[in-house]
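Structure ticket #2291
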Amino acid sequence: MENTEKFTNNKQIIAFLTEQFPACFIAGAEPAKPLKIGVFQELATRLENETRVSKTQLRGALRQYTMSWRYLHSVKAGVKRVDLDGVEGDEVSQEHAEHAQLTLKESKEKAFANKKKTEASKAPVRAPKKVAVPNRKKTVVKKTPLQPEVDLSQYKEANHSELKVSQAVKVLLGKTPVSATVVEILKEEVQVQLDSGMVVKVQAKHLIV
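Resolution: structure written out below.
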């Protein structure tokens, strides 16, 4: 009898994807492969009759898979991207590779900081010594507004009502706009897929065209 019980978490869905598309989604400790740009649409089409998982669940699982350190390590310039059947296509561009490595670096730094914070919270707390501080006049420091790293005047802020599926846009992430493609337009937000393969949900005001 066919199993029709719905998946309840990303781990189950990723395991299902590695079973259904082993040449695309790599399981275990083996090196991952960069995914074809637009693989979500292809995945949604191939699994449209699969009752155990919804498009929303697929999108969440795909995001977790492409945000893993193992996957980000695989996104290197010149490496061939693969489709669901493992067929190689376009090469990873230098821009996408740099973005993936930046994401990996930030993720590791965040994990390391959280680990240090957890360890610090377990350490015994010592009461600070009271030190007499003489009264001094407070020095008022004028804050200088930060200048934007990138001149955005050449871009136009996206209009939610004018966006279309498959439209090429740029996402304001960090200091540099990142190339992406619109995959779904929601009521108040827009689902886009970065060229690195990651899928994110943003508001139209964070998109430029």
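Closing remark: The CA atoms of residues 116 and 172 lie 30 Å apart.
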